[in-house]
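Morning. Coffee machine broken again, so started the prediction first thing and wrote up yesterday's gels while waiting. Chain of 665 residues, entered below exactly as on the submission form.
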Amino acid sequence: MIGQIAPRDARPQVYNSPPAPELHPPVNQALELLAPARNADIAIEAIRHGADAVYIGGPAFGARHGAGNPVADIERLTAYAHRFHARVFITLNTIFRDDELEDARRLAWQVYEAGADALIVQDMGLLELDLPPIQLHASTQCDIRTPEKARFLADAGFSQMVLARELSLAEIGAIRSRVGAGGTANSAPPILEFFIHGALCVAFSGQCYISHAHTGRSANRGECSQACRLPYNLEDAQGRIVAFDKHLLSMKDNDQSANLRALADAGIRSFKIEGRLKDLAYVKNATAHYRRLIDRILDDAPVYARASSGRCTYTFTPRPEKTFNRGATDYFVNGRQADIGAFDTPAFAGEASGTITRIGPDWFEVDSDEEFANGDGISYLSRGRKLAGLRINVARRVGRHQRLFPNEMPEDPEGFKLGIEILRNRDQAFERLLEKDSAERRIDITVELGETPDGFRLTLRDEDGISAAAEIAHAREAAKNPPRAFAALAESLGKLGGTDFRATEVKVVLSEAWFLPASTINALRRDAVEQLIAARAAARPRLPRKPPAEPPAAYPERELSYLANVLNSRARDFYRKHGVELIADAYEADTTPGEVSLMITRHCLRYSHSLCPKEAKGWVKGVNAEPMVLVNGKERLTLKFDCKACEMHVMGKAKKSRTIAIKAA
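Came back before lunch.
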């Protein structure tokens, strides 16, 4: 903060308000950090910790059952978000039965009237309804893997779309080339969105039906039973065990920390964190981590711009490895890799924190550089590489070792022994930091005090170029101590602690050092802040709805199988309008007979076990490992491999008991 004092003979300045600036930079420039939220309170903390936008469920029809929120909470959230020109996206991304469409339409209007900025949708039937003039974003459930599909969705009226997690940088670049790279918010190619952090669904999103086939709970309707996290045996064509009791469909968690600049250069403009079911600590930690990384890109590459207002400060150092994760992978962004699976456990094992050096009757010592605390959670891989855990009641430093007293000593001589690695999956001290207020977000402004014919004017100008002013009529009385008066004015004018703003520069431009009571300064500052808040609100237009192309663009295919997830008549109308001639029912309609692909994935168990015919060497070369079978109890799922597309299909059919139960209901 700097006080600038005009010479005593300076004439009072006349303030002319400039026109409102363009708040939305071209979409090929703004980088958006998009954070998840289970509820409005978590969403507000995500924004406070640096999110440019949040995605959250409304009262119904979100693809995360149990993460719904009342419309009143959506309204409270949007009011907070819009103070920073951050945005709120509502997940309306299940597929609908015909009898649900009217409720979905009404809900779309309700969240629009509550201030929501966009709807995230999967079901194309919604586009045939009387929706409000709100932006539409294509959900991950739309399975956007090809330039042709991305181009079609852009032509159909989608302003933003999240690409498949499985894409490489080259594939992302090809999509960007197809949909275009220029434009502005009012005339734009779609913003390309990509998951950069969190849990990875092993299937292409929208292409997994195991849950519905086995339990009647559809992933496309927000009720996935997560069969991918179960343990399986893997058998080859001769019934031999290739892998025993492993979580073979469970992926490590996504972490693109090292690839953000490459993703931006490939065309990604919205960086999405997974986790609408995750807790507050996870959202705070991940959001702050990626905010810092994106800010570095913005500092280093002026071609990119901020997507919202304000700068964040934190009371903690973000460390994503300390909150829930299954290990880290960047998946397929840099090409296929072998080490992408969390085969040992789908739980949070924690970070490596030392090895056991001594074991006592009710304690053990660890050689570690880490400082443990009472309440820490410890895990280790016991016999058979099964995850076991315990809670530390007391932690004491003993020389260069730490002596840990758990709530109960494990009875596991084969697993819990000298030399084993200890992992910490709860850092009590870190968690305590995140339970408190852990961030502030403030908008930088400059403050200038000048004179008017009958008093004074205070002008505020924010980091977005938005200005506002307040005036007050007040008699001019010369200060007895001019230097002290100027300094006191500058200090008082910069006191903005109870607002969203932070003064980075204070100018006192007066013809003479006038005496102004503190009450007058406070009133003038309060009025100016209110005017700036109003000016910011007026300068923030709602995101425009993108009109579809006319005539309607042709869909890339003429026939749709159950994989297109068409469950209602309005979705059929949509596809027919776009040139599709044959449309099968969604799998959830229970009209798809026999054994079909219940999951399609780029993850390949032949590759993971060095049996890929493209990669095999030596004696393995030429071995026919197909078919392979996943076995969980009495459940047997056949694996088929499409080597041309480099995909694995998990084959199966609906259980009769599940079908009967659904019909009875």
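Residues 3-20+442-538 form one domain. Going to sketch it on the whiteboard this afternoon.
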